[in-house]
From TrEMBL:
Keywords: Lipid biosynthesis, Lipid metabolism, Nucleotidyltransferase, Phospholipid biosynthesis, Phospholipid metabolism, Transferase. Residues 12-136, 205-304 form the Cytidyltransferase-like domain. One of its GO terms (biological process) is phosphatidylethanolamine biosynthetic process. This is ethanolamine-phosphate cytidylyltransferase. InterPro entries: CCT, Cyt_trans-like, Ect1/PCYT2, Rossmann-like_a/b/a_fold. One of its GO terms (molecular function) is ethanolamine-phosphate cytidylyltransferase activity. Pfam families: CTP_transf_like. Its EC number is 2.7.7.14.
Length: 373
């Protein structure tokens, strides 16, 4: 302690952070709450391929995505797959935090065994209903079932809702996780909850922001630079499916809300925003400028330009993010390497089931000892 000031608590997290989603963000949010500064280590492509199989994103893309999460203070590149005491000490971190799922090396060793044994490990609750494995599965299945949640909410659905496009044969309690259930509490936890200040220049952008990726991140950084307060309008799943087709969106509206809210450039999100940017919307949010990326703009169902109003007001701008990544390109990566990713998912589940069985057997043994005594 110096001058009576409390020592800063530094928290360490590490991982692959491949296809960064709101589950990763929620884990990092919880980790940040345990200290003052959050340092996140990200494995490089070589380490991930060795222990887990090929990543979807490159290491540079993954470093950028983690740095864009609002709770992250520092990013450390190319950290070892097994967390050591040396790396915690090197970055002056008090302890390591991870979700309550299992992470193992290629040899089936718990990657956090060293820090656990030293008492420098804490666990946070993983977000049920989403994982990189699950998202890859949704893309491989090429169905629309993952975003259909009932005919009253979405008129496109006459079929029964399923488990978010997951493989129903999944047995692992982590890979075969339960359907994500959104709550207002979760949205509050992700939101800054801060209204614009008087005089703030307010920027508005709308879209699907599906499988939140580096292209979105670079666009949002450029959008935020146009003003002080960035509002993102997220279209409903049927609307997204109308202009993107196939099995899009891969992530449903509630998942996309949390993914976008986790971005440090975003101030507020409009859930289920209208496709047409109307005068009412512009007035309600006091929008100074509407921006859109260089992706094609589809007219609405009445063949009208959805940005006609802001264009007439002289409040519309096309932004070049400088990044040509799209959700479609991510899906192409998955489909191109379909066999590799399918095998990766199978191998991951095998390892998880082995550990799960071991944990269950240990619980049974412990219970037996208690009964006998």
């Amino acid at each position: 302690m110096e001058n009576g000031d409390k020592r800063e608590v530094r928290v360490w997290c590490d991982g692959c952070y491949d296809m960064v989603h709101f589950g990763h963000a929620n884990s990092l949010r919880q980790a940040k709450a345990l200290g003052d500064k959050l340092v996140v280590g990200v494995h490089n492509d070589e380490e991930i391929t060795k222990h887990k199989g090929p990543p979807v994103f490159t290491e540079e893309e993954r470093y950028k995505m983690v740095a864009g999460i609002k709770w992250v203070d520092e990013v450390v590149k190319a950290v070892p797959y097994v967390t050591t005491l040396e790396i915690l000490d090197k970055y002056d971190c008090d302890f390591c935090v991870h979700g309550d799922d299992i992470t193992m090396t290629a040899d089936g060793v718990d990657t956090y065994s060293i820090v656990k044994a030293a008492g420098r490990y804490k666990e946070v609750q993983r977000t049920a209903g989403v994982s990189t494995t699950d998202l890859v599965g949704r893309m491989l299945l090429l169905t629309r079932q993952h975003f259909r949640r009932g005919e009253f909410e979405y008129d496109v659905a006459k079929e029964h809702s399923s488990t978010m496009g997951q493989d129903s044969s999944a047995k692992s309690p982590w890979t075969g996780c339960s359907q994500f259930l959104p709550t207002t509490q979760k949205i509050i936890q992700f939101s800054d909850g801060k209204p614009p200040k008087p005089g703030d220049r307010i920027i508005y952008a709308a879209g699907s922001f599906d499988l939140f990726h580096v292209g979105h991140l670079d666009f949002l950084e450029k959008a935020r630079a146009q003003g002080d307060y960035l509002i993102i309008g997220l279209h409903t799943d049927p609307v997204v499916n109308r202009y993107q087709g196939s099995n899009y969106p891969i992530m449903n509206l509630h998942e996309r809300v949390l993914s976008v809210l986790a971005c440090k450039y975003v101030s507020e999100v409009v859930i289920g925003a209208p496709y047409n940017v109307t005068n009412d919307l512009m007035d309600h949010f006091k929008v100074d400028l509407v921006v859109h990326g260089k992706t094609p703009i589809l007219n609405d169902e009445n063949d009208a330009d959805p940005f006609a109003v802001p264009k007439q007001l002289g409040k519309f701008m096309i932004l070049d993010s400088g990044n040509d990544m799209t959700t479609e390109k991510i899906v192409e990566r998955i489909i191109t390497n379909r066999l590799k990713f399918e095998q990766r998912n199978i191998e991951k589940e095998k390892k998880e089931l082995k550990v799960w069985q071991y944990l269950q057997d240990n619980v049974k043994s412990t219970n037996q000892i208690i009964v006998e005594h």
